[in-house]
Amino acid sequence: MGGLPRKLPWTLLAMWIAVLALAGPFAGKLGDVQHDRAVDYLPASADSTQVAKIQDRLPGGETTELVLVYHRDGGLTAGDKETAGRQVARIAEEFKLAGDPEGVPSKSGDTLMYPVASNAPGTDEKLRDAFVNDVRDIAHDTDAGMSVKVGGPGALATDAGEVYNSLGGPLLYTTVVVVAILLILIYRSPFLWLVPLVVAGVADFLSMGVAYGLHSAFGTTISGQSSGVMTILVFGAGTDYALLIVNRYREELRRVERPYDAMRVALRGCGPAVLASSGTVAAGLLCLLAADLNSSRGMGPLGAVGVLCALVAMLTLLPAVLVLLGRRVFWPLVPAYGSQPKARKSLFSAMGSSAGRRPLTVLGVGAVALGALALGALNLPGAVKQEDSFTSTPDSVAAMKTLAAAYPETGTQPLTVIAPTRGADRAAATARDTAGVADVRVGRSGDGWTEISVVAKAVPQSAAETATIEALRDGLDKQGAYVGGPSAQQLDLKDTNARDRLVVVPIVLAAVLLILVALLRSLVAPLMLLLAVVAVWGAALGLGGLVFGPVFGFEGTDPGLGLLSFVFLVALGVDYGIFLMHRMREEVLGGADTGTAALTALRTTGGVIASAGLVLAATFAVLTNMPLVQLVELGFVIAIGVLLDTFLVRTYLVTSASLALGRKVWWPGALSRTAAAAAPPPAEEPVLARTP
């Protein structure tokens, strides 16, 4: 028995080295299967998705469509037009284009656009990017003051792809730096902070290998967004679990002589809360499998993989390393055996005392504050347009804005109709007769399908163009034809996100509720925690509505923000409720009345919950530095929500509700019948601060 404590940590360490050696080759391949094409983000069942898939099977494969935009304030000169024609001719010579480019001058005479399309890149994103960048090299600005921009769906995809491809490095490095700084401040030790950070890095590496395996086995969609969020979750959730384990381990080192035994007691005490916490997050994320949106459905499994890899690492590798390093890892604040932490008033003791004096008043004021903040959601801007989806202005967006100003009377982004070849002529005739259509051209055919290009009279993503798309779909639906293209994709994204919210949200709530009921052996406490996190979600969205437009200057909101922020905030927010309520239940089982247990739980876990909340909020706040509006909005809402949950809901509202309900908080479990009535200690009672 004596040899087991010495051997087990080394055995776990050896097992992890073997696991990493096996996962290494697969982790390195994750980037090869990461794709950010439109079809990877579109709804699985939408018309626009079917169009994108069928286009892949047509001769030449997927079409990369560009628009070269030549513009001069005050009007283009003859020399400008000659330069434009020469550049376009060179592009036609050097690349295999789908048709001869024809210039379309604006009525104002200051802009000339050349639509250019090629099937050569197909579905290969690297070839597409190379084609777009080569065209940009040829169509460069002149010295005479004429600007040349390359826009269109292909250019937008390339610019967005560059952003997603850049997420891996900067996002990872920034996350690591932020977590490291916070851990140093929390632990106040030159060594301890490095242990959970390295273990989180190991978990991230493992998650990459597992994610690649998921893709290989089940075809799971892996995008830049989902892999970036997976990294955030590994470091955010993993560090949270580490904080809880290290905090409890430090407590036990004062009571237990040997580090191995202290770790065993610590894991026995906080292990169920960590397991339930990670299980709740993973279950909530897996509910995204019910979404129709490919990007959301792919994010669910990847997020769950990140959380579970973090859990396994923090429950095995972290304890092994800490035990091997011994007490000295805590230097200079070494928890000596038999010692007591310095007695001092803690912030969370003061919070608990204030909540204990007037729990109903605190609960009411807090609920009103959250409700008032939630009203800000009414100020959220409408769905973001493609050209407004970047925080900066890349070449493709500048081109689209120039086109919108120069061609207000016509569409500059064609719609794509895919019709059965045997009925292509009929479909083209129906499209020509549809209100709002300016031009129809029949294109390539193959595999039983024909591509038809439709130009709307209205500008892209306007209400008038949306009406044209809907009219086309109504007229062509019975003919077995599909209507797609960039504008149709944005419409499908909006509609599908609304559908997914109605389907996924109830599933998430039910899954989380079942886990909480099983853990807490109660119905009232889980419902209380769920109500709290839903209120936090509403308040965080409301704060987003107050700042996205007026402060950040965003022109729209990502359609998926509501669903993704809900899933993350409910799953992650319940984490802290589990930490708090599980400790409270421990105290009640130890003989304390519910009121005393609530304040003791807040006093002993408040510091670690605050530390964990700061780390998790900071990791998601890293997304606000990314150059895509959807990532900034998601990062902001989740970070603000986590902070609200940490410093308002868990500390004040959940504690106040527990004090007000007393033993009823455990109804209908056995504790509701055996626990004593709530009786909080006097405000003057000294308490010991717990270092997180």
Short description:
The chain is of the alpha+beta class. It is built from 20 helices and eight strands. A hairpin with a 5-residue loop joins strand 2 and strand 3.
Q: What do you see in this structure?
A:
Mean pLDDT is 84; it is low at 675-692. The chain is an alpha+beta fold. The chain starts with a helix and ends in an 18-residue tail after the last helix. It contains 20 helices and 8 strands. The strands form 2 sheets. The chain has a 4-stranded antiparallel sheet with strand order 2-3-1-4. The protein has helices spanning 3-27, 47-57, 78-94, 125-138, 153-187, 194-218, 224-255, 259-286, 294-325, 347-357, 359-374, 395-406, 424-432, 463-476, 486-520, 524-547, 561-589, 594-621, 629-661, 671-674; strands at 64-71, 104-105, 111-118, 147-151, 415-420, 437-446, 449-456, 482-484.
Question: How are the SSEs ordered, and which strands pair?
Answer:
Layout: H1 3-27, H2 47-57, E1 64-71, H3 78-94, E2 104-105, E3 111-118, H4 125-138, E4 147-151, H5 153-187, H6 194-218, H7 224-255, H8 259-286, H9 294-325, H10 347-357, H11 359-374, H12 395-406, E5 415-420, H13 424-432, E6 437-446, E7 449-456, H14 463-476, E8 482-484, H15 486-520, H16 524-547, H17 561-589, H18 594-621, H19 629-661, H20 671-674
Antiparallel strand pairs: 1-3, 1-4, 2-3, 5-7, 5-8, 6-7
Helix pairs in contact: 1-6, 1-9, 4-5, 5-7, 5-18, 6-7, 6-9, 7-8, 7-9, 7-18, 8-9, 8-15, 8-17, 10-11, 10-18, 10-19, 11-16, 11-19, 15-16, 15-17, 16-17, 16-19, 17-18, 17-19, 18-19
